[in-house]
Amino acid sequence: MLIGVTVMVGMRWHRYVTQSDTPYDEVGITLNGYMPGPLRSWGCHKMQERFPGALPPYGCAAADGRSWA
Known about the structure:
Blueprint: H1 2-19, H2 26-34, H3 37-50
């Protein structure tokens, strides 16, 4: 059961990072916050490529809150 939940959460996070229409999806932001550092960093970088003119979502913002980390 734990493996199934892990796969479902991982797939939902991956779909948020690679296919979401917006970087501000609340569930995606929350899941991204729970990811280990390297995965979270990859996800933020991928979303920055997909949404270059958007403000970064929570967890992907630099200290100023307006630029991508």
